[in-house]
Design goal:
By secondary structure, this protein is of the alpha+beta class. The chain has four helices and 13 strands. Strand 5 and strand 6 form a beta hairpin. 15% of the residues are buried.
Length: 235
């Protein structure tokens, strides 16, 4: 992939009013931050930026041309309007040639694993790793082939092949992808039947007399008093 080149102009004025004027003209206010702490206020064509950076990642180095001078930089941050999604501001971070840098590189999983075809569940908990290298050696992305991944197997960060001159910073034992067996789920119908049977055993049958000594049900009429026992003759 050829390097993306963006044309920008220096901004002489700052402030929210100037930023609004720039956006109305179809451009975007931006800042290019240098490694030494310097910052250059810029503005660039909105449509050119959207088209040029459509398929780049956080580790893609773009070329920003400002008044005849070129800067290699990352697109460090973009701010958008939460209502319409339009770009409001861009932050670039300058990269110096020949100076080692640290960056996060996205991981792209490829392939259909053997374990999934056998009924396993695929998981991909890690989506990027941090590396250290020279700007010229920095990969835009790293493809991870999971085609041969079987059930109860995993791919770790240490298993990812890195290019020459690229040093891993992320923990090597982190799991990138794995396939595991699906857990057996209890059938809801069986659980419901068991609960119904338990309830039926605890409740008295309809129309049955309450057990001796049991309190009458709420709202039930009190039992009729029994007649007094007949007196014995001669007494």
């Amino acid at each position: 992939m050829s390097q993306v080149t963006l044309s920008a102009k220096k901004r002489e004025k700052a402030g929210s009013a100037e930023s609004r004027r720039i956006r109305r003209s179809g451009r975007i206010p931006a800042v290019l931050y240098g490694r030494s702490g310097s910052a250059i206020s810029l503005d660039l064509d909105a449509l050119e930026f959207v088209r040029g950076t459509k398929n780049i990642s956080e580790s893609t180095i773009v070329k920003v041309e400002v008044d005849g001078k070129s800067y290699d930089a990352f697109v460090k941050d973009t701010q958008r309007n939460i209502l319409d999604g339009n770009l409001l501001h861009i932050d670039f971070y300058e990269v110096e040639s020949g100076v080692v840098l640290r960056a996060k590189v996205s991981l792209h999983v490829q392939g259909n694993s053997i374990g999934v075809r056998e009924g396993g569940i695929f998981e991909n908990p890690l989506h990027e790793i941090e590396v250290e290298c020279l700007p010229k050696d920095l990969p835009e992305r790293i493809d991870v082939d999971v085609s041969n991944l079987k059930v109860n197997q995993a791919i770790h960060v240490r298993d990812i092949p890195l290019g020459e001159g690229v040093r891993l910073i992320s923990a090597a034992d982190q799991v990138v992808a794995l396939v595991k067996f699906a857990k057996a789920e209890a059938a809801p119908a069986v659980a419901e039947v068991a609960a119904a049977d338990a309830a039926a055993g605890a409740a008295p049958a309809v129309g049955a007399a309450p057990a001796a000594g049991a309190a009458p049900a709420a709202g039930a009429a009190p039992a009729a008093k029994s007649a007094p026992a007949a007196k014995e003759k001669g007494k």
